[in-house]
Amino acid sequence: MQNKGLIRLFAVILSVVCLYQLSFTWLAKNVEKDAVIYAESKAESTDPEGLGKMEREYLDSVANTPVVNLGFAEFTYNEVKEKEINLGLDLKGGINAILEVSVKDILFGLSNESKNPVFNEALNNAAQAQKNSDKDYLQLFYEEFDKASQGSVKLSDPSIFGNKSLKDKINFKMSDDEVKPILQEEVKGSINTAFEVLRSRIDRFGVTQPNIQRIGESGRILIELPGAKDIDRVRKLLQSTAELQFWEVFTNQELSQFFLSANTKLAEILKVEDEVEDAQDTTQSEEDEIDDLLGEVKDSVNFETANPLFSKLFPRFPQSQNDISSIIATASVKDTAEINQYLAMKEIRALLPAEQKYAKFAWDAKANNDFISLYALKSNRNDEAPIQGDVISDASQVFDQLGANPEVSMTMNSKGTKQWAKMTTANVGKFVAVVLDDYVYSAPRVNDAITTGRTSIMGQFTIDEAQDLANALKSGKLPAAARIIQSDVVGPSLGQEAIDSGTYSFIIALIIVLIWMIFYYGKAGIFSDIALALNILFIFGVLTSFGAVLTLPGIAGIVLTIGMSVDANVLIYERIKEELNKGKGLKESINDGFGGALSSILDANITTLLTGIILYVFGTGPVKGFATTLMIGIVTSLFSAIFITRLLIEWYVNKDRKLTFNTNITKNWFKDIDVDFLKKRKMSFIISGIILVIGLGSLFTNGLNYGVDFKGGRTYTVRFEDNVSPPEIANSLKDAFESSPEVKTFGSANQLKITTKYKIDDYGVEVEDEIQQLLYNGLGSYFPESLSYEQFKPGDKEVNLGIMEFYMVGPTIADDIKQAAFWAIIGSLIVVFIYILIRFRKWQFSLGAVAAVFHDVLIVLSIFSLFYKILPFDMEIGQSFIAAILTVVGYSLNDTVVIFDRIREFDNKHPMWKYSRTVNTALSSTLGRTVNTSLTTLIVLLAIFIFGGDSIKGFMFALIIGVIVGTYSSLFIASPIMYDTTEKLNKKKKS
Question: Mapping DSSP to helix (H, G, I), strand (E, B) and coil, where does residue 483 land?
Answer without folding.
Answer: strand
